[in-house]
Structures are given as C-alpha cells and as structure tokens.
Specification:
- The chain has 13 helices and 14 strands.
- It has helices at about 10-25, 60-70, 85-90, 90-110, 145-165, 190-200, 220-235, 235-240, 255-265, 265-270, 280-285, 295-300, 310-320; strands at about 1-5, 25, 30, 35-40, 50-55, 75-80, 120-125, 170-175, 175-180, 205-210, 215-220, 245, 250-255, 275.
- A seven-stranded parallel sheet has the order 5-4-1-6-7-8-12, sandwiched between helices. Strands 9-11-13 form a three-stranded mixed sheet.
- The protein is globular, with a radius of gyration of 19 Å.
Length: about 325
C-alpha cells in the first residue's frame, strides 16, 4: 500500500507518520511506501520498515498536485492548510492555500483514469457559525463566519461531489480544536487553549485572553491521529452519501481546563497563567461553536478522549517524558 500525507511536516502529519511507521500497516494492509509532502522539508519517522519519500513544494501550484498523485497512492491524507488566524488576516493567501490547493489535488486525482483512492480531508468545526443550539447535531447547517471556515466548507462540498461521481472515495473529518498542541505557538486564533496548558507545564508563563466561562470543543493529538486512521480504513458504504463527519471531543470551559491542569500539576503550575483580556479574540471566540452531539461519528466507531484531564496527561507523557516543569 502506498500512502501520501500532504501536510506531512505539520504537527498532526508528523504524529500520523510516526504512528504508521510504528504499526507498519494500515488496517490489514502492509505499507510499502509513504510520501510526506509539505511546504517545508518534513522529517522521516524513526524505525520505519518501508520506503519513505520526502518532498517539498506548494500545493496551490497545479503541477505540484499532478506530480504527487502520479504514482497513484492508495490513501491520501490531505492535512495541509494555513490556520484560522492567518487565513483571516490574509484573505488571498487563505483561499490560495486552503481552497485552490484542495481543488488542484482533487482535480489531479480525477484526471487519472481507473484511479479511485481513499482521500481523507481534514475539515474543521469552523464550518459552523452562530447562533448555535446547546449542542450542535449532525443535521446542523454549515454557515461559517470566518474565511477559514468558508474554505473548509467548500472543500467538504467538493469532496462529497467528487465522491458522488465516483472520482474518488472521500471522507472528511471535522476536527475539534486540537489540544494540547506541542511546540511553539502558531497563528491559530484558538492557540491560547493550548498555550494555557503547554507553557505552564513547561515552566513558562501563558497569557489567557478570554474569560473562564468560554466553552470550546477539544480533542488531543492522539485522538486526531486515531480519527485519521479510522477515516482511512472505514467502509465507505457505512459512511453513506454524507461524506463529512464531525469528530467527537470534549466540551469544557476555560475554567474547567484550568481546574484539570490544577489536578494534574498543582497550584504552582496554574499560577503561571496571566489573564490579559483581548477584545479582538473575545469577539472572535463569541462566534465559535462550543458543544456537539456527534452521534454519526460515534456510531461509525470514531473515539475521542474521556476527559480534559486525560488530554493533559497524554501531553505530559508524549511531549514532556512524564515530567512537569
């Protein structure tokens, strides 16, 4: 089996590649080749028993997508995107990367005769816009209130239509906010949800720009990798014609995040959080979805974390070697 990860240099792409290298197979099929593609050079996972190809380029260029699918990968994970804050700040760049890149990839796949790969597209809960019910169900309409959410919603429609016409076998997964993200802060507007956990655990100060009663929908990097693997192997007939699914997660307030941090790491770590209200972020967050009922995804076998405390402990184990700063 040949696998292509577009966005293989990003956090989730690296973790997915590492898991594939460890497992050596996807589902019941042995992996023969893994290609990692990103705008910056991705790193090969350790202890890999199959062939690894590392490629760099710009997916928004038509020829790049054609070159990537020329070898007919059986599974394509499309993870590449610029994040919410950057897509909002740079309108043209957001559409060029998040929409044009996706369209070029799908067009390149369907241009090859008798080639119908599984395409796993990472969408986002940003496809939903306020006003919201207490919990967003699988039947709630997609009316995004950001450019990033709009770009993802268009990608979902394209994936569904190309799949309907038999040009590919697509599954779209709407990821919760992934928390706790390792590494340095990025330009995602939601980055503070991870910052207020990651930085204090590492012995550094974190700034909290919103009130403690702000609620949001989270899943860990471990769960995100699990979602991707399940989406790659699930029977398309079970998914049916509605090819995009909202992934399960945990709905918690910022205050509940902080209390979970206190349970795991104590008051001294929590004291490293400094509250500095930011009206721009407060306004943006007010239009974000907060809670979901993900009945379809759960029925199809997708699984998420049991609690936010579990999410923090996973970060401590995976990124800090079990040690708290």
């Amino acid at each position: 089996m040949k696998i292509l990860i577009i966005g293989g240099g990003g956090m989730i792409g690296r973790k997915l590649a590492g898991r594939l290298a460890t497992d050596g197979k996807l589902g019941e099929r042995e992996i023969s080749e893994l290609t990692l593609f990103d705008v910056v050079s991705p790193d090969a996972p350790d202890n890999c028993t199959f062939q690894i190809k590392l490629r760099t380029g710009d997916l928004s260029k038509v020829d790049e997508a054609k070159s990537l699918v020329a070898e007919r990968p059986d599974i394509i994970f499309h993870l590449a995107a610029i994040v919410s804050g950057e897509a909002e700040e740079d309108f043209a760049k957001g559409y060029r990367i998040n929409l044009d890149g996706t369209r070029h990839l799908l067009d390149a796949v369907c241009a090859i005769r008798e080639y119908v790969p599984r395409v796993v597209f990472t969408s986002s809960i940003a496809v939903f816009g306020a006003p919201f019910p207490d919990a967003i169900t699988d039947d709630f309409h997609t009316t995004p209130l950001t450019s990033y959410g709009t770009q993802k919603a268009i990608g979902e429609l394209l994936l569904s239509d190309f799949t309907r016409r038999g040009m590919m076998d697509g599954v779209g997964i709407r990821l919760p906010t992934i928390c706790v993200r390792p590494g340095s802060p990025n330009k995602a507007a939601s980055g503070f949800f991870s910052n207020i956990i990651r930085e204090p655990l590492a012995g550094a100060e974190a700034v909290l720009p919103v009130a403690d009663d702000v609620q949001h929908w989270h899943a860990s990097p471990r769960s995100a990798v699990g979602f991707l693997l399940h989406a790659a192997t699930i029977d398309g007939a079970d998914v049916g014609p509605r090819r995009n699914l909202t992934m399960p997660g945990i709905a918690v307030t910022v205050g509940e995040q902080i209390e979970a941090l206190r349970i795991v790491a104590g008051d001294n770590v929590v004291s490293r959080i400094r509250r500095v209200p930011d009206e721009k972020i407060i306004h943006m967050v007010s239009g974000w979805p907060r809670n979901f009922r993900t009945d379809r995804a759960i029925r199809l076998g997708f699984q998420a974390d049991a609690s936010f405390e579990q999410i923090i402990r996973a970060h401590v184990d995976d990124e800090l070697g079990g040690n708290i700063g």
